[in-house]
Amino acid sequence: MxxxxxxxxxRMGADHVRRIDEVISGARVAAVADIDADRAKHLADGIDGxxxxxxxxxxxDDPAVDAVLIASPGxxxxxxxxxxxARDLPVLCEKPLTPDAASxxxxxxxxxxxxxxxxxxxxxxxxxxxxxxxxxxxxxxxxGRPLMLHNKHRNADTPPxxxxxxxxxxxxxxxxxxTRWLLDDEITAVRVLRPAPSGNAPDGLGDPQxxxxxxxxxxxxxxxxxVNCGFGYQVSCEAVCESGSARIGxxxxxxxxxxxxxxxxxxxxxxxxxxxxxxRQVQRWVDATRRGEVEGPxxxxxxxxxxxCEAGVLAQATGERVAVELIERPALYC
Length: 334
Ligand code: ISE
Description:
Its EC number is 1.1.1.18. By secondary structure, this protein is α/β, with parallel strands linked by helices.
């Protein structure tokens, strides 16, 4: 049984604690850490054998801990990752790896000093059944070479304080990762188009936005991001290839025929929409860790996403096409 320390017990952290406790096999919650001592204690009290801490490093030193799940806010990730590296513990780190490319690069360098991969980054869409089917189709080349992706990413609403930069760093970061993964290529430039904002957008938020990526292989990817659409959470992706196109994400939920009408349902939020993906992501991490292996999105993927986000935030602010600067991919991640 893998003893996991969950660092950060906000919305995602608490959900992962429940998941490890109730859904996943082969792991148990051995420790929880949160700067809010009461929140950590409350969670730990509900789980047999779990100890509450306020200091992530102290949780990692608990003898019952074999691995770490980091779900604290992004700015706290670098310190927690370096603490885990100092103890050579396997890590599942919620996205973003870190909030900017410079700190992601420091993490990348620290992991290389260990000489082996230790981190799986929580880009959970890679574990969604629809995205996995699409990835398999593209890898098999069933419809020829992919030329374009059309993404749709809609949230019902945003939490207070959600900013334009967060539209890129928190939301579009997922399309950045799936683009790189599905097309197996790097994003080289970003543009952001900003239509007149919806009357329902909070003050100062340019919502919706259209984000365009170019890849090294010459593909173009568009993402409609509309984070206050008001009617639910929708994520879809269509790959347009040389001799066909394939789309996933439209039919999530129940499809009903009744009273002379037909239609499906829309999930309220990302936790419901991607519940299976989160479960599969954590189970795969536990299984790989118990085999002594590391798989899934790497620190390189976290760093590349951070670099594209930086270019995206600049493109959003300036209206310009911004090129993405990446270091050469280190051997550990090839
Ligand atoms: C949120 O942080 C997420 O990670 C969701 O997956 C994303 O859809 C949402 O837009 C973000 O705010």
